[in-house]
Write a structure and sequence with these properties.
With 92 residues, the chain is mainly β. Helices cover 4% and strands 27% of the residues. The longest helix has 4 residues.
Protein backbone atom coordinates (compact mmCIF):
# COMPACT_ATOMS: atom_id res chain seq x y z
CA UNK A 1 0.00 0.00 0.00
CA UNK A 2 1.17 3.51 -0.67
CA UNK A 3 -0.11 6.85 0.63
CA UNK A 4 -1.80 8.79 -2.14
CA UNK A 5 0.55 11.79 -1.86
CA UNK A 6 3.60 9.53 -1.98
CA UNK A 7 3.11 8.11 -5.47
CA UNK A 8 5.42 8.58 -8.44
CA UNK A 9 2.96 11.17 -9.79
CA UNK A 10 4.03 13.46 -6.93
CA UNK A 11 7.77 13.39 -7.67
CA UNK A 12 10.25 14.95 -7.01
CA UNK A 13 9.07 15.39 -3.40
CA UNK A 14 6.38 12.86 -2.47
CA UNK A 15 4.87 13.57 0.94
CA UNK A 16 1.95 12.68 3.10
CA UNK A 17 0.59 14.72 5.98
CA UNK A 18 0.71 12.71 9.22
CA UNK A 19 -2.81 12.06 10.47
CA UNK A 20 -4.39 13.34 7.24
CA UNK A 21 -3.45 11.37 4.13
CA UNK A 22 -0.70 9.01 5.32
CA UNK A 23 -1.42 5.34 5.83
CA UNK A 24 -2.32 4.41 9.39
CA UNK A 25 -1.10 1.36 11.27
CA UNK A 26 -2.51 -0.13 14.47
CA UNK A 27 0.15 -2.21 16.24
CA UNK A 28 -0.45 -5.35 18.28
CA UNK A 29 -0.32 -3.20 21.43
CA UNK A 30 -3.17 -1.02 20.13
CA UNK A 31 -0.93 1.95 19.36
CA UNK A 32 -2.13 3.99 16.37
CA UNK A 33 0.56 5.35 14.05
CA UNK A 34 -0.55 7.94 11.47
CA UNK A 35 2.70 8.54 9.57
CA UNK A 36 3.25 5.68 7.12
CA UNK A 37 4.02 6.53 3.49
CA UNK A 38 4.32 2.96 2.22
CA UNK A 39 3.98 -0.53 3.66
CA UNK A 40 3.83 -4.14 2.52
CA UNK A 41 1.34 -6.71 3.80
CA UNK A 42 2.59 -10.28 3.81
CA UNK A 43 0.06 -13.06 3.96
CA UNK A 44 1.01 -16.11 5.98
CA UNK A 45 0.07 -19.70 5.32
CA UNK A 46 -3.58 -20.63 4.96
CA UNK A 47 -5.22 -20.72 8.38
CA UNK A 48 -8.64 -21.98 7.35
CA UNK A 49 -7.60 -24.50 4.69
CA UNK A 50 -8.56 -22.17 1.85
CA UNK A 51 -7.78 -23.39 -1.62
CA UNK A 52 -5.11 -21.32 -3.31
CA UNK A 53 -4.87 -19.65 -5.67
CA UNK A 54 -7.96 -17.72 -4.73
CA UNK A 55 -9.55 -14.47 -5.91
CA UNK A 56 -10.83 -13.64 -2.41
CA UNK A 57 -8.58 -11.22 -0.49
CA UNK A 58 -9.76 -12.49 2.91
CA UNK A 59 -8.35 -15.92 2.00
CA UNK A 60 -4.91 -14.32 2.28
CA UNK A 61 -5.18 -11.51 4.86
CA UNK A 62 -6.84 -12.12 8.20
CA UNK A 63 -8.17 -8.82 9.59
CA UNK A 64 -10.86 -6.47 8.32
CA UNK A 65 -8.44 -3.54 8.49
CA UNK A 66 -6.09 -5.34 6.09
CA UNK A 67 -8.76 -6.38 3.58
CA UNK A 68 -11.08 -3.34 3.33
CA UNK A 69 -8.82 -1.45 0.86
CA UNK A 70 -8.81 1.60 3.14
CA UNK A 71 -5.92 3.59 4.63
CA UNK A 72 -5.91 1.78 8.01
CA UNK A 73 -3.82 -1.37 8.45
CA UNK A 74 -3.30 -3.63 11.43
CA UNK A 75 -0.38 -5.66 12.77
CA UNK A 76 -1.83 -8.05 15.33
CA UNK A 77 0.12 -10.50 17.40
CA UNK A 78 0.71 -13.70 15.40
CA UNK A 79 -1.70 -16.37 16.66
CA UNK A 80 -3.50 -19.46 15.39
CA UNK A 81 -6.10 -17.20 13.73
CA UNK A 82 -3.99 -14.24 12.51
CA UNK A 83 -0.67 -14.39 10.69
CA UNK A 84 -0.58 -11.18 8.61
CA UNK A 85 2.74 -9.37 8.74
CA UNK A 86 3.18 -5.67 8.07
CA UNK A 87 6.50 -4.25 6.92
CA UNK A 88 6.82 -0.47 6.92
CA UNK A 89 8.75 0.69 3.86
CA UNK A 90 8.68 4.46 4.50
CA UNK A 91 7.27 6.87 7.07
CA UNK A 92 7.38 10.59 7.86
Amino acid sequence: AIAQGHTAANLPSPVCASGVDCLKLITSGGVEQHDKRALVLLAGRSLRNQTRPSAVLSDFLDTTQNTDLGTWYEQRRITASVNDRVIVIDKN
